[in-house]
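Justification of resources, computational component.

The compute hours requested in this renewal are based largely on the per-chain cost of generating structure records like the one below. Each record pairs the submitted sequence with a full structure-token output. That output is archived, and it is also reused by downstream analysis tasks.
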Amino acid sequence: MTRSQQSIELDTNALVNNPQRLRESFWKKLKRVASQLPFAEELLAAYYCAFDRQTPRHVQVALLGAIAYFVLPFDFMPDVLPVLGFTDDAAVLATAIRLVSGHITADHRQAARAALVRGVEDTQP
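The structure output for this chain reads:
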């Protein structure tokens, strides 16, 4: 494992093991990039599912890992690249959602839509 891979793994573990830090980092980044994300609603639905106490632990872990990858300032494809920057984030999230899609409920999706309608800027963690 390269030094870069080890660093990403350590940062991901730190985020997943500290839910409050992950929440804060998630909302900070989402507010900054929401207008650029074609998958913002899916990301928010996954977020609400991951932090729902009724969600099974294995589902939470899968979604939290994908959310942590989104939050990390460095990843496989830098987010600052126009058009391509979020494709790796979208792929990781899509894979996680596909694995646990039955657990993302209508309530999670409604909460995501409501947050987008309110405006991410006005949404509090």
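Residues 2-10 have pLDDT under 50 and may be disordered. Residues 19-33 form the longest helix (15 residues).
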